[in-house]
Amino acid sequence: MHDVSSPCCFIHHSSFILELEEFITKHGFIDASSEETMAGQQNLLLAHFYKNSPRFTAKHCGQAQGFNGYAVYWLHMVVLNCNLSRTQHPKAYFYKTDGHICFLCLDSHIQNYKDSKLRSVANQRLLEMIEVLKTHR
């Protein structure tokens, strides 16, 4: 549900949520949850993009190239309550418009992902989310 006081609405690709839940089930502790993880990431992104209070350094979040002019970013997410090194936490791609942030996909070095494959998945899901946003208010 969208908080009307928020400058941004978060809507995510359904496969992203499944990927996050799978990652947390596999690598998180019992008290880790996808809802808590997303709430934390969303709060940080709101501060970073909309409150002029950057929370991420260039090592942790940046604009991705190769998305035909769309504002797609990558983010090294932090999954709380998991016993992973900083480099094993998942990398996610998200699409940002003036009023929406849409997480597209994620993967982790612990799962031996290839960035080119992850970018390809992000491109495909970006097109799907653009269609969804045409009817989303």
Word description of this protein:
The chain has 137 residues and is of the alpha+beta class. The chain has a single domain (9-133), classed as YaeB-like fold, CATH 3.30.2310. The protein has helices at residues 14-27, 34-50, 115-133, and strands at 9-10, 61-63, 72-76, 91-96, 100-107. It has a five-stranded mixed β-sheet. β2 and β3 (72-76) form a beta hairpin. The protein is globular and about 40 Å long. The model has no long low-confidence stretch (mean pLDDT 87).
Lay out the secondary structure:
Blueprint: E1 9-10, H1 14-27, H2 34-50, E2 61-63, E3 72-76, E4 91-96, E5 100-107, H3 115-133
Parallel strand pairs: 1-5
Antiparallel strand pairs: 2-3, 3-4, 4-5
CATH architecture: 2-Layer Sandwich
The ordered string of helix (H) and strand (E) elements is: EHHEEEEH
Q: What global shape is seen?
A: globular
CATH class: Alpha Beta
Number of DSSP E strands: 5
* Strands ordered across the widest β-sheet: 1-5-4-3-2
Main sheet summary: 5 strands, mixed
Provide the CATH topology: YaeB-like fold
Name of the CATH homologous superfamily: RelE-like
Features:
137 residues; YaeB-like fold; alpha+beta; single chain; 3 helices
